Amino acid sequence: ISMYTLLMYSLNGKPYSSFSSMIGANLYMFNLYMVEVKWRNGYVFSLLAYAVLPLSLWCFLKIEEKGDKKYLALLGIILFVAIPSALNPAYSSLIIILILFYTIYRIFINLMFRKKNKVKNTLKTFALFSGMFLLINSLWVLPLVLNVQPVVEQETLTLESHLKISSAKSFCGIFRFLGYWTLRGKYKGEPY
């Protein structure tokens, strides 16, 4: 749905835009890389960031175009959905890298055509997006930047220490039944 929304927005009412958007959305989710690498090997958490990537770009474009705060709120919800992929920051960093490159492209194009007003608008939108991204992902960004992550003395993590670290990093995983909370289940002291 997210790639379909982005393509419908970018095609902007051209003939066969809904059909083209449907084909593009299917190719986005069912390409050979996704089927062979992500789905087959079990990288399910990376699919969350991959799935909301076009929708976050669409919200960024809408904020830049209209400056409406409801798209900023929608972007916050979208980034909140992608938080479980932050257990590996490479997956969720894909969103901010794409928006960063798009921002650089827009600034370059606007400077070429001497549109200083649009450059300021693009920078303001990127600052809002970056602030929202850092605020929502502060559960892994702040410990990474401030180097206050829990110290594990063994080189290999035991299951119990992995459970402590993952539960400390994802508080919203409890609400969406994600994470490793099911591995803690015990009956009379024995795990089931």
What does this structure look like?
It is a single chain. The protein has helices spanning 2-11, 17-29, 32-41, 44-66, 69-81, 89-112, 116-136, 138-146, 159-169, 172-175, and strands at residues 186-187, 190-191. It is an all-alpha fold and 192 residues long. The chain contains ten helices and two strands. Strands 1-2 form a two-stranded antiparallel sheet. The two termini are 38 Å apart.
Descriptive keywords:
globular, 10 helices, 2% strand, 192 residues, mainly alpha
Given the C-alpha coordinates, what overall shape results? globular
The largest beta-sheet arranges its strands as 1-2
What is the CA-based Rg, rounded? 20 Å
SSE succession: HHHHHHHHHHEE
Sheet having the most strands? 2 strands, antiparallel
Poorly predicted residue ranges: 151-157, 165-182
Count of DSSP helices?
A: 10
Determine the strand fraction and express it as a percent band: under 5%
What share of the residues lie within helices? over 70%
Span between termini? 38 Å
- Helix/strand/pairing category: mainly alpha
What is the average per-residue confidence, as pLDDT, rounded to a whole number?
76
How many beta strands in the DSSP annotation?
2
